[in-house]
Amino acid sequence: MIRLVLAEDQTLLLGALASLLELEDDIEVVGRATSGDEARGLVESEKPDLLLTDIEMPGSTGLDLADWARGNAPGTAVAILTTFARPGYLRRALEAGVRGYLLKETPAEQLADAIRRIHAGQRVIDPELALTAFDSSDPLTDRERQVLRLAGEGLGNAEIGQRLHLAEGTVRNYLSEAIGKLQADNRTEAYRIARDQGWL
């Protein structure tokens, strides 16, 4: 029996996914989470074979969870199930150690089969997305990414500095670097470009 935790912030989709997968004789959904932090708690308490998670959720993202699980729950494989067919997301997911990257339009029987293959130790990546994964490389550093993400949430330089324990001038420098690398006119455009590419 493959023990599975599902993490998806859309409650209706979470319920539908759980119902579909529980129709399989060899898959048991042992936990459902609607946020990244809730998913982390379930992985710690249930110790599932697999965590199937969305990328964008309240609290920890699916990529944060994958990175965390690699060091703290090595017995739990992580697979991403998302609407975002973005090469940048796939690259970061692979770097975080995910075993699968699937799109939400995947038919139910293919999803169940992918779960079995991941449980057997294989890596399963949506084939069309795999072809584009390395077409565009992320030019941002981790710190530039953090600063740009907070700027995109509407925080000013001083607030970003407080959040990241940086001087306001340092924040301005990171933003300037990110804007230049992305050939954007301002921080808003830089955030949009980076987000569209899956780099945030």
TrEMBL record:
Coiled coil: none annotated. The modification 4-aspartylphosphate is found at residue 54. GO terms for biological process: phosphorelay signal transduction system; regulation of DNA-templated transcription. CDD domains: LuxR_C_like (cd06170). Residues 133-198 form the HTH luxR-type domain. SMART domains: HTH_LUXR, REC. It comes from the Bacteria. Keywords: DNA-binding, Phosphoprotein. This is DNA-binding response regulator.
